[in-house]
Amino acid sequence: MNPSAAAVSWNKFAAIQELGLLQSTSTTTAAGEEYNKNGNVNGVAGVAGGTTLSVLRVAVRARPLQQDELTDYKTCKECVSYTSDGRGVLVGKRIFAFDRVYGPMVGQEDVYLDCVKPLVDSCCAGYNATVLAYGQTGSGKTFTMGCGKNVPLLPETELGILPRAIRQLYSSIEERSSDAEFLIKCAFVEIHNEEIKDLLHPATPSKSISVREDAHGDIILAGVKEEVVTSFENMIRCLEYGSMFRTTGSTMMNQHSSRSHAIFTIIVEQRSLVHKLNALSNDVITAKFHLVDLAGSERVKRTGAVGMSFKESVTINCGLLALGNVISALGDERKKGRHVPYRQSKLTRVLQDSLGGNSRTCMIACISTAEINLEETLNTLKYANRACNIRNKPIINHDLHAIMLNQALQRELLLTTRMCCMDLEHGTSEPYSLENSLQCTSSLLQCLVEYRGREILPLDDVNAPLKSACHECEKREKQCLKLHEQIQESQFLVGKLQQEMHQLQTERDRYQVLLQPLAPLAALGMKPLLVLENVAKSLACCTLPRICFEQGLLHPKFPDHVAFLHKDATYKLDPSFPADDSLYPMISLPNSSIAGRDQEDIGWMQIVEFDDEKDHSWMSKQEDTMMIKDMAKPKMHIQISNIQLHRSVPMKWTMLITLSVVSLLLRRFSRVRQ
Ligand SMILES: Nc1ncnc2c1ncn2[C@@H]1O[C@H](COP(=O)(O)OP(=O)(O)OP(=O)(O)O)[C@@H](O)[C@H]1O
């Protein structure tokens, strides 16, 4: 702080004190002395009932005369002087002492560092905090608070309390990022004509907003939507956006006069990342920081308010009067323990925590130094003087509801785990009971998440035990889902297999009928089914005679000739062979399977019996001829020539062909036996 502006020395201050001119000396200095004694920037006043009391700090700021005031002889004369210790202010013949007095030369930064920085620090430690700017219209409240328009365009020296506090808050968060996790929200409301308006959501009707007290006695603004903000820039944008909707007007005393009380609230939620032995101690702390730019107190005669402005002026003054009454009730030792009229106005109701409640509060009384405003300045100083004795009871705001939910969740998890272990041990684990427990746990988790209003953060950010509980829950849910899927798949497979089994049974019955003729093969020591299978396989890749040969179908006692017959086949005689008894019918595959193909492509098989001694020359003419010697008739050969079965022949047909071959062979066998 720059105390150079002090115009009155401490000696003069003491002299006036001796003359008995000092207003409310005992009360005002009491606060100041305590402040000095404790050397505590938060104005700690003592301990009562286990709660540390905090004195409401009061500072006075005088604004310099404006250019137009300096050029007007009526307004250019000053009436305010200051003590050299920076705590006393002299107006006319009266002197007042406060925690701090800032002369017109004191810059924005000094005011901020002195009055607000400690509050931001304590807010980061979990205490509620409030800064109130009070004063006559045009005395510099909006300038001091820094909640006017075009904040980003202002030079650093002109930045008010709000942008500086936001900047400090984010830098504190960054510094503490390794040991705590923060969620920052903000809300911006104005109280105009006894109606609350959500400046960040101007479409919200005022009627849907109400001031309530929650179960813990904290004051909440029901119906006002809080915005989650992740950076300094975002919050400044919120500030600017809300300022655009603030009710302002031009009066004879201030061209851009705020016609409402504006409250910008920063909500700081934090969770420690430093794990302690007891995981539940790792709870959530929430602190609210109200930055209040009150509407200016004014004398209607001087502001020239008429019509709507007149009504506005009246309600502004009523609100400030109610605030004054609350301040009196809280600050006057004689009225101690009496009813505090918080409900007299919306303003006092909203600020209930900040005045005499759970908050560290600083009031900055803004004054004009011009002699023309002497009366208003005196009123402001008297008003602020009464606030010096107010003692608040700030406490760290642990989120009790979150702790309770946390504990319930822990118990539920423990129970679920125990039940699962018991079930597993006794082999009585039932998926549905497990599922029920999991559902219960997950609804508890959901409850906690909704309560915290942390939709934008992943669930596992709530805290460490919850994180692992969440993880476990997710894992089990996935397992359940997977099991359900597997059951469904298996059921489908069973159905399919039953259908296939039915088809196979029908097929088997059919083949059994077909296989009846194979019984004699078994009598010969051959395994009919195996033979059939091998033949069918080989048919798909080899020539038929070779197969027959390789599979031993051509028994040593094989008859001298063989022919293929099938009911669906088309038979043709090869015209190139003489039509005598030795020529057997040629076989082709059924028409359906050769559609669109050349007959040659499918191949022809000719089986002919001849005596090689007689007709040797014919044999040599043939290609792809296979001679099979009949041991029983050494001179007789079976010639199977030019046999190719197309590979695309379906298995069904190869089976039928094979069956035909086999049945033919059998018939030949029986003939041979006869
Ligand atoms: N400390 C200061 N240094 C320089 N200029 C200041 C200072 N305080 C206020 N002003 C100027 O004085 C004028 C009035 O200030 P401001 O609008 O902040 O008053 P106010 O108390 O908010 O008025 P109202 O109650 O009518 O809204 C503005 O032009 C502002 O820039």
From TrEMBL:
Keywords: ATP-binding, Coiled coil, Microtubule, Motor protein, Nucleotide-binding. SUPFAM superfamilies: P-loop containing nucleoside triphosphate hydrolases (SSF52540). Residues 55-390 form the Kinesin motor domain. It holds the Pfam family Kinesin. InterPro entries: Kinesin-like_fam, Kinesin_motor_CS, Kinesin_motor_dom, Kinesin_motor_dom_sf, P-loop_NTPase. PROSITE patterns: KINESIN_MOTOR_1 (PS00411), KINESIN_MOTOR_2 (PS50067). CDD domains: KISc_KIF4. ATP binds at G135, Q136, T137, G138, S139, G140, K141, T142. It comes from the Eukaryota. Residues 487-514 form a coiled coil. Belongs to the TRAFAC class myosin-kinesin ATPase superfamily. Kinesin family. This is Kinesin-like protein. It comes from Sphagnum troendelagicum.
